[in-house]
């Protein structure tokens, strides 16, 4: 199978909604500006989230079927003036793509800097930002896709099951934890926090959309909701402050309490009149703790104070809501009444053909054994893939080969991060192509728990050497690490078939 025929490139079909979103990262492209040297260290619970990168417009057009209207997932125009699309990348990872209006960010550098600031954040309570795109007048953000709708949908537009009280408290705490993390990381401003900004992931756990961490435009316009829900100081001076975010959090608490979108002034009148029961969602039918509800009502009242300095901090939110949590042992998807995605199998199914030593190591996902085999195979498989003229033996060429040599030493000594850096220097020059370098860098990425990058390198090795079994074996391991187990099994069998074909050809000659 040639590279351009690979099954891991997307088709133009609309992808079914009930497919499980895969945790696969973006295809990185060269930036148009100088990037920061690295994204800041991620939170400990973000190991499976791909690193932040720049996408090409072609990547995102392909992922969204040319921004098909059928893939728009924005709840409504009023709540999401910049349209959000569902997309699927080449490695089958689902994404959410926010497409800004043409004039929102005229300066591409300013947009990129703002996106990188948000992109360095990583937390399990966020629907994290994984990339951006600047191309001509286009300005796009790319985030993790959340398949189980918004809080607004579950609160206001539910059909079969409303959100029970304990789940509402869980949602409130999750938002508070996300805001506290962002505040601690120096990003305390959240623009237009509302029930449409709270999303549910494949496990039904609530996540705060990262899109709200970035302004809707460079001129600072931050609120698109009805003026009745907008912080009073924003109406006065047009500026969002951390205290403004607390006011918006108070409006979300009102949503969770009432199951309706009640204007804060009306809700505060009910609270002052001790009409808390009238405020509560009638669909709960009394199935809530009055003591807990009183605490949440009190917190909402504090958040909605006209004087910003009288509102609580994010730390106060967490401290108030954490003790109220009940039913912590029950998964969120059960409480929401949604289906749990099937658990991934730990390894691909058994292959249909006998395997060589590298095939056996790949089927076991034994990275140490794969590394040792690649150390021993040297560069024999690269023969015939490069034909260099005398003129190409420049100093640049010598530097490039020196980089490969340093990479080989690091690879042999299991210094995988150093090997990635050296091999990347070799690859980036682009004068020589080496499937072995791609395969070696692929296993290095796997050793560093970066299966997305490993899959890309294995696919590049296949492009250079379409019939090389090792390229297919490496794809199999990367796919298995990404929980794409049937695809991993198919790739394993394809590699074994290529080896079998090669052996027959040798015997015939």
What would you say this structure looks like, in words?
It contains 19 helices and eight strands. It is of the alpha/beta class. The chain folds into three domains: 53-144, Phosphorylase Kinase, domain 1; 149-336, Transferase(Phosphotransferase), domain 1 (Orthogonal Bundle), CATH 1.10.510.10; 357-380 and 393-508, Tetratricopeptide repeat domain (Serine Threonine Protein Phosphatase 5, Tetratricopeptide repeat), CATH 1.25.40. The strands form two sheets. It has a five-stranded mixed sheet, sandwiched between helices. The radius of gyration is 26 Å and the shape is elongated.
Instruction: Give me the count of strands.
Output: 8
Output mean pLDDT.
81
Provide the β-strand percentage band: 5-15%
Order of helices and strands: EHEEHEEEHHEEHHHHHHHHHHHHHHH
CATH architecture of the largest domain: Orthogonal Bundle
Specify the oligomeric state. Answer: single chain
For the largest beta-sheet, the strand count, sense and barrel status come to:
5 strands, mixed
- The rounded Rg comes to 26 Å
Unreliable stretches: 1-47, 75-80, 342-351, 383-392
Strand order within the widest sheet? 1-5-6-3-2
Can you tell me the number of structural domains? 3
